Amino acid sequence: MSHSTGPADDGAAATFGARLAGAMDRHGPLCVGIDPHPALLERWGLTDDVDGLRRFSLGVVEALAGQVAALKPQSAFFERHGSAGVAVLEEVVAATRGTGTELVVDAKRGDIGSTMDGYADAYLRDGSPLAGDALTVSPYLGFGSLGPAVEAASASGRGLFVLALTSNPEGAAVQHARTVAADGAPGESVAGAVAAAAALLNAAETARTGAPLGSVGLVVGATIGAAARTLGVDLTAVGGPLLAPGVGAQGAGPAELEDVFGDARRAVLASVSRGVLGAGPAPADLLAAARRTADDVARVLR
Q1: What is the pTM of this model?
Q2: Distances from the Cα of 42 to the Cαs of 47, 56, 259, 281, in angstroms?
Q3: Whole-angstrom Cα distance, residue 15 to residue 216?
Q4: If we measure between CA atoms, which residue out of 123, 210, 166 comes closest to residue 202?
């Protein structure tokens, strides 16, 4: 299903959550990261410059667009090449549009006021060359600071993935911390507050559209163990997709996925980079690796 280039229409087909659910049904619950870091460029026999960046990134799109549920270019690896690198990211966005594969721009933006307005305009507005189908965002200036992104995504039929429970050890210091209630008493965890806010937005959207998933997802590391249960974060209640880095080369297998997600595993979109990209550069090898990985993940999550 192609992405609408105009304002989103009412109905399930116009929402990111509905499109992603359909893509996961067709291709399996796999998101392949496009991470053109220097070591991978070298492994593919490419130079660590804009030419190598373009060959790598568009090669992944050519091999996998229309064949996997989602692709996720990591903005940092494009930005390191300056304006010419950002132009390649724009090419990736354009090349993926209309293929039936959802594109998640992994930029982890988060700020307040007019600055967040600017990020929303850049990554979520119809007509912007950087606007894919969804954007990763950071809620650590308060979930309310993401208001411009929430509004822009809703207006254009795009989605968000909000950082919630990441696998890096330092993340726990913020994500596991308790909020403070109005009376000064300890409240829920920061991750729990993020999950609850996403759940409210998704409940309103799915009630309106009847879509199986809302468009506000969470980023939940596949190697966090029992953290969600310990913190009382109900991942099944989120009602949106759960983007799960850490599958495969980063350590999470069937047991870990079951431990982290439990009954929420049907909403999981597993994010894999090295396990697929390492099979390149031949397009047939990339596609074969992606299909194997999607099948392996689907067996665990379904």
Answers
A1: 0.93
A2: 7, 10, 36, 11
A3: 10
A4: 210
